[in-house]
Amino acid sequence: MEHKVCVTGASGFLASWLMKRLLLSGYHVIGTIRHLGKKHKVEHLWKLEGPTERLELVQADLMEQNSFDKAIMGCKAVFHIASPVPNHISNGPKAEILEPAVQGTLNVLRSCRKNPALVRVVLAASSSAVRKFQWHGRMGYVHMDDVALSHILLYENKASHGRYLCSSAIMDNDDLVAMLANRYPGFPFPKGRVSLRFTVVHTSALLKL
Ligand SMILES: NC(=O)c1ccc[n+]([C@@H]2O[C@H](COP(=O)([O-])OP(=O)(O)OC[C@H]3O[C@@H](n4cnc5c(N)ncnc54)[C@H](OP(=O)(O)O)[C@@H]3O)[C@@H](O)[C@H]2O)c1
């Protein structure tokens, strides 16, 4: 099973889990990264289990046409994960999230069209794109390893097509904190009604915790 597959946005949280699973499954993985010079963003990838001779990193930017040609050429699958997930938004979500996500996906798909060997494109979206999941502060939670494995399952299963949702529990902040407090009684969780502030942390920083 040593054929080549491409994962876009290799420095990211989901892509890192996916690349770990792909390497363990025997694939040759080509990951795309926006800035080759920012080595700290990808140093965790070189420490993944699985032989690193099956890992390659190639520069590609969502906003540059033809940028993904080199990474995608010769691959049988493309897992398109790269998408802007900004820490804070100063110019509005349309300019900072929507437009680069849509234009970037079109750029990736145009590169896919140039590769006659390509069998399948698996495209990651998010439950945050589905309003129902966020009504009244409720959100869907799922382990990232399950999301990564789902992507591989969708590629390997010839019958898969269309859209799939990967979700485990849907809960509000209070349920989430109660569940965590029950599981980790030694941690100082807040009591009473909970207002959570989410902080964006990069994968390479998470691995140092
Ligand atoms: N985290 C979750 O729980 C989860 C679950 C399911 C689906 N998803 C979806 O999966 C996708 C990735 O999420 P994530 O949590 O892994 O986010 P993340 O850690 O912020 O990763 C985003 C990746 O996209 C890359 N990227 C952003 N803008 C780019 C550009 N212009 N050109 C090339 N690469 C660019 C980033 O590169 P840089 O490092 O250079 O910024 C990074 O590698 C999102 O669509 C998200 O909604 C996330």
UniProtKB/TrEMBL annotation:
UniProt xrefs under Gene3D superfamilies: NAD(P)-binding Rossmann-like Domain (3.40.50.720)
InterPro entries xrefs: Epimerase_deHydtase, NAD(P)-bd_dom_sf, NAD(P)_dehydrat-like
Keywords assigned: NADP, Oxidoreductase
Example GO molecular function: oxidoreductase activity, acting on the CH-OH group of donors, NAD or NADP as acceptor
Residues in NAD-dependent epimerase/dehydratase domain copies: 5-129
Signal peptide (residue range): none
Keyword Oxidoreductase belongs to the record: yes
Coiled-coil region(s): none
Pfam families, A to Z: Epimerase (PF01370)
Protein name: Dihydroflavonol reductase
Native source species: Medicago truncatula
Lineage per the UniProt record: Eukaryota, Viridiplantae, Streptophyta, Embryophyta, Tracheophyta
